[in-house]
Amino acid sequence: MRLSQAFQPTLKEVPAEAQIMSHRLMLRAGLIRQTASGIYTWLPAGLRVLRNIAQIVREEQDGVGAQEVLMPTLQSAELWKRSGRYDAYGPEMLRIQDRQKRELLYGPTNEEVVTDLFGSTVKSYRELPKTLYHIQWKFRDEIRPRFGVMRGREFYMKDAYSFDASYEGAVSSYYRMMLSYLRIFRRLGIKAVPTAADTGPIGGDLSHEFQVLAPTGESEVFYDSRWDEIDWDKEDLDGNRPEDLKKLQDLVSTTYSATDEKHDTAAWEQVPQERQASGRGIEVGHIFYFGTKYTEAMGVEVSGADGAAFHPHMGSYGVGVSRLVGAIIEASHDDNGIIWPESIAPYRAAILNLRSGDDTCDALCERFYQCAPDDILYDDRSERAGVKFNDADLLGHPWQIIIGPRGAKNGMVELKERATGERFELSVDEALKKLGLA
Amino acid sequence: MRLSQAFQPTLKEVPAEAQIMSHRLMLRAGLIRQTASGIYTWLPAGLRVLRNIAQIVREEQDGVGAQEVLMPTLQSAELWKRSGRYDAYGPEMLRIQDRQKRELLYGPTNEEVVTDLFGSTVKSYRELPKTLYHIQWKFRDEIRPRFGVMRGREFYMKDAYSFDASYEGAVSSYYRMMLSYLRIFRRLGIKAVPTAADTGPIGGDLSHEFQVLAPTGESEVFYDSRWDEIDWDKEDLDGNRPEDLKKLQDLVSTTYSATDEKHDTAAWEQVPQERQASGRGIEVGHIFYFGTKYTEAMGVEVSGADGAAFHPHMGSYGVGVSRLVGAIIEASHDDNGIIWPESIAPYRAAILNLRSGDDTCDALCERFYQCAPDDILYDDRSERAGVKFNDADLLGHPWQIIIGPRGAKNGMVELKERATGERFELSVDEALKKLGLA
After folding, report:
1. For a disulfide at B279, which of A249, B109, B213, B225, Cβ 3.0-4.6 Å?
2. pLDDT digits 0-9 by tens, A235-250
3. What total number of domains does chain A contain?
4. What ipTM score was computed for the predicted complex, to two decimals?
């Protein structure tokens, strides 16, 4: 995309209510604009990031056998009356009446819809296990929306739901999903640590939150640094092999992690000192086993091997896709702007033409641009070099391809790696090769 | 995907309220399930079609320089009061009150939001023209939702909005968008004809609907068969060249098409008899120039070359993405089920293993399946051959790869092309080649 034509409005002055860094940077860099309290329009660069994250989530969910559906945003209140949650759910639920005076609601979560869908389609234990997921807009009527997309009202979320014939099966589904989540966060280029969470009346230990480590996180996280070191892509764990899931389960139970709320100093002291790590955490995911709570309440049964009907065991698994955009910026920025991990950057590189209009510069820029016009933002504006440097740093492209008249004449360009600030003076061919464009 | 594991529930008996063929087939084939009146969940196969259509629309919108954003589903009533439409819009608008008693609504269309967004970001004529689009869920509270996704309440739609400095610029944007639409429908594998539509108080001739030709269409369409013949991908028309847009404009004005409402028998008789074609049409798109209606009402101005502020000219351009799924089925099915155009089929092929459990059959099926597991539905169930034939015809995969014990022993498979019913007895290598898998 050529910046002279792009809908890529940056902001000089940020509204005072944008208190945290990610909110300020998302407004300044032109990723989002607010349209109503806690409700945002995603501008092209922001939407690209949102879609890149969603696609990684999708691939890793598919990778463990979860199947994608799409449930609607509006739900019938009827279903929530069947589960008993309609009256229990507080004022965060947006309740709606249609022209026929029927009660609808904007889904804040989808246990009811998916349980009903499952009940109307799956009849036999032979069809289990099944895990369904979708990536859909949801609404929670926060009393005080703030922090931009981190605590908005309309938000984009991946939620998955597993159905199993037994508790043991549900435990496998749970750890299969944990494996998927660990791979998702690894691919997103951020550090995320699973920490034990409340299980409430369900009991047991099958509830974990995933904390992205960032200085502005809402809770303190204590963890064994092995969590940082394991490359879940390279780990040879197959979500379809029960023994691999058992291995993961053992690893989770023997590798310390906890938020301050649940911190256990005695267990912590067992972690070798050189592996004791800590940081602030932003919750971006939650996985949870809740047994037969909804299948019982909603009367959903399937027939077992012995012919007798039973209520399947369920778990639910969420990732805050729009929240992640904010969380990743909190985890990855500096004073000059955003530093995107390569896997989700809106553009892999920016070309900074330091003298637009100069034939040599223009031709060389064009040569780079044509290698990947969808994946490069070409700053072809007739602005001063300083403006271009600042905007590229603000937008946070992993690479800047800096082309000025002196270098261009000699067939040289400068590459700057945003994350490290490192600069490389290279010939055109070397630069193309380094960027993977040749 | 292996059918034994897929969430792919077919239905034997279809609810009586499903009157039209596409609705019946979408339920029977397991593409959608209703969750509330006029509100549907998209099951995996249906979602794949929906996403394939959206992706083609996206590529062709990007192809003419439109830029993708994502506006929220919920909008502030405030914006609609500024445009004057809040009270004028009828009971099809779903009006909502949040916990703070602020008025929201579920967007039925986005002129207000996009005009406000434009006004807050674009300040100078130098930034024009600009066309923004998004693909988002919308809601219209139909009094009598019916025909499945063809007239649902929550529906998925691409809507684009152009902003130009002058009427002449707006005409270019209009025909650029028409070119994009003609390419979209061509790639979707359906016949679609643009027909002149009402322009209301705006006047002029810049309003066209796009009619998919299908026997169950709501209106009669009379058209010059040149509309069927032109391959818009091959036509060397560049949306950035004004002379090409003029060529398209001339072509539109000299190539007859009209719905019965606007049929002009005198003009019709000028069309050579061998080119007089007609059929029933389902409206799936609408493009419309409406001038400065919203920019004036909402006080949106940009500064001109002479320094004076002016109201940009706008047009809006819609494609009913979820509606298209139904419309395409109406246009492309037979007594046995759906016939998907290749470009949007949920799976390109099905493998029918006529003897699951037989080593030779299983191995050969596996060989085909591993070539493209994401794009092939492998019927590995232990069902009778007849059941597999019926389900494959119902689901409408462009190709069936039929593997039985006798052929398999001799390294032969049968390919069936769904659209023509043609069958090919081929060696494994020939079959792989014909399917583009080798």
Report:
1. B213
2. 788 888 999 999 999 9
3. 2
4. 0.96
